[in-house]
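Board work, copied verbatim: Thiol reductase thioredoxin
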Amino acid sequence: METVSELGFWQRMATTQGLIILFFTSAGCHSCRIWRKLLADYEAARSGLQVWEVDAGIDMGITQELNVYHLPALFLFRDGHYQRPIQVEARAHALDRWLAAMTDQPPEEMP
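↓ predict structure ↓
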């Protein structure tokens, strides 16, 4: 899992191929710690998937652009394009099912 900042974020996103889960966190968020562990293991077990972590308290520009109001918040991008928010329980099998169902859907507009 890679920590990213808003500096050059959109340029990098535009040139990145494959699936990216963008994960918004905060240092004091207990649910974020659970998701962080799950996503680190999930990313390690799957090729073609990257997880990028954003500290919502530090990188507020990206946080506001995606209308993040609660943490953790997860969003799916494919080939640099916004797909949709991820709303699923913090379990690998639930994330597998969600990704299988949503990955090939047409993208939504960014919030």
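The CA atoms of residues 37 and 64 lie 25 Å apart.
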